[in-house]
Amino acid sequence: MIFTTALLLLGFVPLGIVSSTGQDVPQNTVSSLNEYHNPLQRVLSRPTAAPSSLSNIEHEVDSSINSVSNTSFSKTPTALQQHVLFWDRNNDNIITPYDVYTGFRDLGFSMIFSFGGLLINVFFSYPTRLAHSYLPDPFFRIYVDSIHKAKHGSDTGIYDSDGHLRSSLYDELFEKFDGSGTGSLSVSELFSLIKKDRVAADPAGWSFAFMEWWTTWLLLQKEGRVWKDDLRQCYDGSLFWRIREERMNKEEGWQQGYGWKDFFRSIYTGKTWKEWEL
User: Fold this and answer.
1) Rounded to whole angstroms, how far apart are CA atoms 147 and 130?
2) What average pLDDT does this structure show over 187-194?
3) Rounded CA gap, 221 and 258, in Å?
4) CA torsion 36→40→41→45, rounded to 10°?
5) What count of other Cβ atoms lies within 10 Å of the Cβ of residue 262?
6) What CA–CA distance (Å, rounded) separates 125 from 94?
7) How far is CA 230 from the centre of its chain?
């Protein structure tokens, strides 16, 4: 657990445009990097603000994914399936360890963190495999169509047992824990949320919940807080495509999260996120 926490604390690379090898990406080569299809691109490319309600987001993302001719799903993906589609690099219903590594690199995480992300396949491959066979997958692949079988205990319950998103529980989460009334959650509020969700005799669920929320904070934080609109896009998966597009197409890159730059600045100034939290 100490090793995993260290990866989470130090795993995010400095903000800016970087390739999967960590080198600067020239702006004129952005188009050549679009090697796999983004089923959410039409939703995210519109110059409009984020939809005002979670149901609108789900509807738009569902419609976009449904229109993909080579989709591996026979029906509209659930919110949980949409959440992980970013890591299905070739839309074949399979997420390999390499897919997980390259996906985290595209989001801006360091090589160390991305290698640590391979634990996702170790823990979640077999639960998703059970929908296809009782035998474990020798390559630790994750099956997107049965990702709901990888749900763990001590979570928020925002995804139901089939992977559908419960909008009312999402709104209720912020009503209970957004003490500032700003539509965001601080680190201390996230810890309160994790404690509230813990159930007895579930150390695995406690650990998964901590790692998921801490990774979310590292990726999304702005002014020390996780904001409601960003988090709801994380739940339906559209956020990951948005981050990838911003890192590749904008000169300034993705401007949220906590990276090496912030880490070394905190050492230099003697301050932590507590001092610059909103």
Assistant:
1) 10
2) 96
3) 7
4) -160
5) 18
6) 10
7) 10
In a 13 Å sphere around the CA of 150, the CA atoms on its Cβ side amount to 22
Q: What is d(CA 11, CA 60) in angstroms, rounded to the nearest whole number?
A: 32
Q: Which H or E run includes 184?
A: strand 184-185
Residue range 28-40: mean pLDDT, rounded: 40
Q: Please say whether the beta carbons of 276 and 258 come within 8 A.
A: no
Which pTM value belongs to this model?
A: 0.73
Residues across the chain: 278
What is the distance between the alpha carbons of residues 129 and 68, in angstroms, rounded to a whole number? 25
Task: Give ∠ CA 221-224-229 in degrees, rounded to 5.
Answer: 45
Query: What pairs with residue 94 in β-bridges?
Result: 143
Token pair in block for residue 13: 């690379």
In the prediction, which pLDDT does 211 show? 95
Predicted local confidence at residue 236, as pLDDT:
96
Going from the C-alpha of 244 to that of each of 33, 96, 191, the distances in angstroms are 11, 19, 28
In whole angstroms, give the CA distance from residue 109 to residue 12.
4
Structural contact between residues 234 and 218, judged by C-beta atoms closer than 8 angstroms: no
Which tokens sit at 80? Answer: 């949980």
Mean pLDDT of all residues in 144-156: 97
- The answer to whether 39 and 85 have CB atoms below 8 angstroms apart is yes
Is the separation of the CB atoms in 20 and 28 below 8 Å? no
Q: What are the tokens at 77?
A: 């993906």
Distances (CA, A) of 178 to 52, 212, 216: 18, 19, 16
Identify residue 230 by its one-letter amino acid code.
D
Q: How many helices (H) and strands (E) does the chain have?
A: 14, 4
| Contact status, residue 228 vs residue 184, Cβ threshold 8 Å | yes
